[in-house]
Amino acid sequence: MSKYTSGLSKNWHLSFYTLWLGCFITGMGYSMTMPFISLFISDLGNYSKLEINLYSGLAFAMTFIAQAIVSPFWGSLADQKGRKLMCMRASGVMALTISLTGLAPNAIYIVIMRFIQGAFSGYINNATALMAGETPHEKSGWVMSQMMTAGTAGNLVGPLLGGALSSFFGNLLGGAWGYRIPFFITGLLMFLVFLGTTFFTKENFTPVSREKMKPMKDIMASLPSIQLIVAMFITTMLVQSATMSIDPIVSLYVKSMMPGSKNVALIAGIVAATPGLGTMIAASKIGHKMDEIGPLKVLRLGLIIGAILFAPMAVTNSPWVLAALRFLLGIASAAMMPAAQTVLTLNTPSESFGRIFSYNQSFQAIGAVLGSLLGSGISGFANYEAVFWVTGFTLLLNFLIILIFASKKNTPR
């Protein structure tokens, strides 16, 4: 065991378990409330169908727009004050804003609260950056995969729990209260995450004064490979865009395969959940493989497999075949985003983790907005199948970018 590993072993395990749980609850809280936001809005006033769709889209997009704008600022502050404080900030504000959203009197209020939440968000990304700095490098691949699994597991549990709570309290209390209660419960859980992060997370961090911080251009110039870092930023954006282009239309695509069926909602839910299940099952194994052979090799394999899988998805007429293919896509996804984050971890000086990962979060937010527009736009002007073809081409393009910019000499291992 290296000196570095033995010096961190006691604290980084406790921090890892605490932050993993925090990421799980953050992912669960998001997916426990957002899938039902349009139903919540429809109960808040006499809105037309167009208004409900517009306000729902704004409520969804505002968070990512705010993230893209403010993430560099929070990243700079993280390098000055530490990532733990950023996790505390994100979980504390999220606890407050989500609870206040449960008190919403109208749709505009929800859109505003979502923007504020996005402006102060970033728990998962900061927790990942914190663990990137605290984890021994020989464990980086496994830890990055597990941190991704936390949010994925939360996203799987959230819709089921949110749907059950909404139905139960809707029948018990009536009206919009069925949709309000999950917001209050999520707010309470995020407050517990704030307390856990405050008291159980340890960070070996030496504060850096604003005067002593290197400008971002100097940091980029000092990196082993600027091209490699930029390629990972682009990868984060394109992979997130690929995910978000499909998620909003999956249930409608399933419905088009099953005209007249009474089980569309159930089967669509299964199809929507299968990628997360595949990611959860494969994440640990793929993480260990990254530590053995290097994250770039795993990333290239994940991108090409993902690109190939979208082709049969576009031509199948069976929701069960689609579910099986999306399960395989989930396995490939475990080799995409975690691998990109691991490359960033291994090629970024520890004093610059905050800003590099914040820029990565901005690219992720941009990808989420672009993906949503891509999926809705293509399906509106063409058809659902075209979304899958374009998304597959996007991952193929990402694979080519990695081949061009992440040359052998830039490989971090």
TrEMBL record:
GO cellular component: plasma membrane
Transmembrane segments: 12-32, 52-74, 95-116, 181-200, 221-244, 264-286, 298-315, 321-344, 365-382, 388-406
GO molecular function, one term: transmembrane transporter activity
InterPro entries found in the cross-reference section: MFS, MFS_dom, MFS_sugar_transport-like, MFS_trans_sf
Domain Major facilitator superfamily (MFS) profile: 15-410
Protein name from the UniProt record: Transporter, major facilitator family
Organism in which the protein naturally occurs: Lactobacillus psittaci DSM 15354
Entry membrane topology: Multi-pass membrane protein
Main location: membrane
Biological classification of the source: Bacteria, Bacillati, Bacillota, Bacilli, Lactobacillales
Listed Pfam families: MFS_1, Sugar_tr
Subcellular location: Cell membrane
Gene3D superfamilies assigned: MFS general substrate transporter like domains
Alphabetical list of SUPFAM superfamilies matching this protein: MFS general substrate transporter
UniProt keyword list: Cell membrane, Membrane, Transmembrane, Transmembrane helix, Transport
